[in-house]
Design goal:
Length: about 270
C-alpha cells in the first residue's frame, strides 16, 4: 500500500502544495485507487494535480464522517467530474449517517449536496458494517465505543427525524490495512476514539500487532483520563511509529513521542507498507 497526503494542516517543504485545516489521503492498494476524505475546499484538487495523481481514475471514495473539513471537497470533485468525466463511476463508501445535516454554533458544518446529485456521480454504499475494499484494506464501519476513557461528548447537533439532536458522530469511522508486519490504521478525526478504532480494527482483522497510525487523533483539549488512557493503550501495543496530523495538538504529539516514534507528516508526504 502507498499513501500520499493530499490535504493536511501542514505541508512538506519543497513540494509547492497548499495546506488547510482539513484532511485528504490518496491510497493505492492492490491495484485500486482510493481517496480517503476530501478536505474542506478545492485544495485537494490543486495538490493532486501538482503531485500528478489522476482523479479521473478513482475506484473508491471513503468518507470518514460528515464534518465539512472531510467532506467539503465533494462539491469540488463533482464540479471537476463535470468537465473531466471519470473513466469509471467511483464507489463512495461511508456510514449511513454521514450525509445528515449538521450544525455547530449556528453554522452548517456538514454535507450540503443532495443525495440525488451525489448519486449521479458515484455509486453510494452506505454501511455501518465492515466492508473489505481489497483483500488487505477494510472500511471499519461503525466503531464499537467500548473504552470508558474515550466516552464522547456531543459536538454540535445533527438533524434526525426532523429534529436537531446532540451529535455524537456515530458515523465516525476509519480504514485498516493488513500489512505483513501488522495493522496500519488510517483515520480522519477519530471522533469515535483512536483506541476504540484500533480495538475495532483488531477484532475485525484478528491481527494484534499495530505498526502505524496515520491521521487525526482528535487530541486538542482532551481530558486527563482520555490522554492518559490513550498513552497507556498505545504503550501496551508498542507501534513501530505513528503519524498524527490534522486535529492533533503539538503538546499531545510530544506526549505520545515519549512512548512511541512520532513522525512528521504533511501535504506531499508519501508512506509505503
Amino acid at each position: 500500500m502507498k499513501l500520499t497526503v493530499l490535504v493536511d494542516n501542514n505541508t512538506i517543504i519543497g513540494k509547492n502544495l497548499y495546506g488547510e485545516p482539513a484532511l485528504s489521503f490518496f491510497i493505492e492498494s492492490e491495484g485500486k485507487n482510493i481517496i480517503f476524505d476530501l478536505g474542506l475546499t478545492h485544495i485537494f484538487l490543486n495538490n493532486s494535480n501538482n503531485l500528478n495523481i489522476p482523479l479521473d481514475d478513482i475506484d473508491y471514495i471513503i468518507i470518514s464522517h460528515g464534518h465539512d473539513d472531510h467532506i467539503g471537497g465533494l462539491f469540488h470533485l463533482i464540479d471537476f467530474y463535470k468537465n473531466h468525466p471519470p473513466k469509471k463511476k467511483p464507489t463512495l463508501i461511508t456510514h449511513p449517517s454521514t450525509f445528515k445535516m449538521k450544525c455547530y454554533e449556528n453554522d452548517v458544518v456538514g454535507n450540503m449536496i443532495s443525495e440525488d446529485v451525489i448519486n449521479k456521480y458515484f455509486s453510494i454504499n452506505k454501511t455501518s458494517e465492515p466492508f473489505w475494499i481489497t483483500d488487505k484494506l477494510v472500511f471499519l464501519g461503525e466503531i464499537k465505543r467500548n473504552l470508558p476513557f474515550e466516552n464522547f461528548t456531543p459536538k454540535g447537533k445533527v438533524l434526525h427525524n426532523d429534529n436537531y439532536e446532540p451529535d455524537y458522530l456515530v458515523e465516525d469511522s476509519a480504514l485498516a490495512y493488513e500489512s505483513d508486519e501488522g495493522l496500519v490504521i488510517i483515520t480522519g478525526c477519530s471522533h469515535s476514539g483512536i483506541c476504540n478504532i484500533i480495538d475495532t480494527a483488531m477484532n475485525i482483522s484478528n491481527k494484534k500487532t499495530l505498526i502505524d497510525v496515520i491521521g487525526g487523533l482528535h487530541l486538542l483539549e482532551p481530558s486527563k483520563d482520555k490522554i492518559e488512557g490513550t498513552i497507556n493503550f498505545l504503550n501496551n501495543l508498542s507501534p513501530v511509529s505513528i503519524h498524527p496530523c490534522h486535529c492533533t495538538g503539538l503538546k499531545y504529539k510530544f506526549m505520545l513521542s515519549q512512548i512511541c516514534q512520532v513522525e512528521e507528516i504533511g501535504c506531499g508526504s508519501v508512506l509505503e507498507y
